Known about the structure:
Elements: H1 2-21, H2 24-54, E1 89-94, E2 101-105, H3 108-115, E3 120-121, E4 125-127, E5 130-137, E6 149-156, E7 166-176, E8 181-187, E9 191-193, E10 199-207, H4 208-212, E11 225-233, E12 239-246, E13 253-258, E14 269-270, E15 274-276, E16 279-286, E17 297-304, E18 312-318, E19 327-333, E20 342-349, H5 350-354, E21 361-362, E22 365-382
Antiparallel strand pairs: 1-8, 2-11, 3-5, 4-5, 5-6, 6-10, 7-8, 7-9, 7-11, 12-22, 13-22, 14-16, 15-16, 16-17, 17-20, 18-19, 18-22, 21-22
This protein binds 2-acetamido-2-deoxy-beta-D-glucopyranose (6 copies).
Amino acid sequence: xxxxxxxxxxxxxxxxxxxxxxxxxxxxxxxxxxxxxxxxxxxxxxxxxxxxxxxxxxxxxxxxxxxxxxxxxxxxxxxxxxxxxxxxxxxxxxxxxxxxxxxxxxxxxxxxxxxxxxxxxxxxxxxxxxxxxxxxxxxxxxxxxxxxxxxxxxxxxxxxxxxxxxxxxxxxxxxxxxxxxxxxxxxxxxxxxxxxxxxxxxxxxxxxxxxxxxxxxxxxxxxxxxxxxxxxxxxxxxxxxxxxxxxxxxxxxxxxxxxxxxxxxxxxxxxxxxxxxxxxxxxxxxxxxxxxxxxxxxxxxxxxxxxxxxxxxxxxxxxxxxxxxxxxxxxxxxxxxxxxxxxxxxxxxxxxxxxxxxxxxxxxxxxxxxxxxxxxxxxxxxx
Length: 383
Ligand SMILES: *[C@@H]1O[C@H](CO)[C@@H](O)[C@H](O)[C@H]1NC(C)=O
Ligand SMILES: *[C@@H]1O[C@H](CO)[C@@H](O)[C@H](O)[C@H]1NC(C)=O
Ligand SMILES: *[C@@H]1O[C@H](CO)[C@@H](O)[C@H](O)[C@H]1NC(C)=O
Ligand SMILES: *[C@@H]1O[C@H](CO)[C@@H](O)[C@H](O)[C@H]1NC(C)=O
Ligand SMILES: *[C@@H]1O[C@H](CO)[C@@H](O)[C@H](O)[C@H]1NC(C)=O
Ligand SMILES: *[C@@H]1O[C@H](CO)[C@@H](O)[C@H](O)[C@H]1NC(C)=O
């Protein structure tokens, strides 16, 4: 409106300028043409303004607002003056009802008359061990200099607050019967409540005129309306974990001497537990193989004695006790199965073990060795 006035003045100014230089007839003609156009433009802008007034944008700037009159009103949401809602507040429709508390007014108009410029305060409800109330100012909270808007607040009862601070995520709701959904207002950040700031809310949740607009469906069944609130008390985490990789392994090598190898008749044998990098491990052999290796190769595995399931990088060896050309295979990965951990079914063929020139079996003794290069670990903490 204001800019339109100025435009009009500017136009009239130039008309006068033209008048001075040219002739009255021309000016009258110009005004006759320009005036209806101005009126048309003015009417159009007023219509657009009225539409915008119906739907208000919190986080949205005016250029995102629907500004053509064809857009259905019920597609948009209320709020008249964008500056009045904080940039942190956003709104949307949702199906689920509020889960903390609801207030229904059988007649919003009657409540408005009775409360007038004051507030309606719900009875206390308990969330997170604290008592809360929902405050509704149907005609704006005058202490926040609000007029013509509905203001809503959540208040924590100070009986339960001494010096401690409570952080809570707050959402406010208005039910729309037409959509059968809840228009939801929420802030990006949880709010701090404490003795000197026991309440928080949205002073300009929705303009009274938008609220009352019948096509929004907030007032239904002859005057009924429903307001709601969600309070979720948030506490900082008290438990956490840190995932890291242990690279500098203390005592990385362990050698296991298996004597009287030819007499072994059990399926598998497990070494005594040993410590590498501050963790306990065992080695496990299947002298006659396991799975696809059965009867063909020796199977060799590294296991965690405490059943850790971390990522491990290690070298497994069968030692050549004569020429020291050991058979070495590197493993890397997560364990395949708790019973076998990290390793290989087909580590060395039985033929190679029996081949005396390979030096694996000397005096009927087999030596297997592990060198642990790194392993991941997860440390758990709690307060
Ligand atoms: C608790 O709140 C009431 C009103 O809500 C106020 O009058 C009173 O001073 C408050 N008490 C404390 C300890 O803050
Ligand atoms: C909440 O309010 C109830 C009833 O008004 C009261 O009995 C209770 O002690 C309050 N709880 C806290 C934590 O203040
Ligand atoms: C590791 O797992 C085995 C078999 O699942 C179980 O018998 C053993 O008690 C577990 N050891 C530890 C330290 O959890
Ligand atoms: C898991 O098993 C596969 C196939 O048996 C093998 O190739 C792989 O190296 C094993 N991974 C580890 C970490 O042992
Ligand atoms: C034993 O190992 C040597 C050296 O690797 C090889 O030349 C020979 O053929 C093997 N003997 C048998 C019977 O496999
Ligand atoms: C094999 O055993 C004999 C006696 O048991 C011993 O004298 C010899 O040193 C052993 N050889 C090796 C390579 O350990």
